[in-house]
Amino acid sequence: IGRGERWIVVYGVLLVIRFISIFQSGYVHPDEFFQNNEIGAKEVFKIKTGGVNSELDAKQDYFTPWEFDPSFPCRSIIPPMIISGFPYAIISLFSSLIFSSHLLLYAPRLLMFFLSLFIDYTLYSLYKSFNLS
Would the pTM of this model clear 0.90, i.e. be above it? Predict the structure, then answer.
């Protein structure tokens, strides 16, 4: 195997690992991951999130993590809406056909997988355009 073929094999193996990781139960930053889903689900589907505490549900309609609370936000809602809201908006178009908790979990991960492929392609294009060896 030549040097170019080895690179393709290594990239292919890493790509398969990256794809399989979409369906794993763990995540590197679970707090941010679930907060993104909560914000996206709340905004797109108007789903009540944040637990099953009936006392909490009686006081407020939807749970918002404190970082995104509109009265004193310390984080922008834009990244969660891109990461989770965009795939959820696409799902909402077809919600009468398909709607499941697994789809809500995997849709943002699939988006991030395809965005990572775009980054790979961009870096490879830059590598080729500068004739790097």
Answer: no
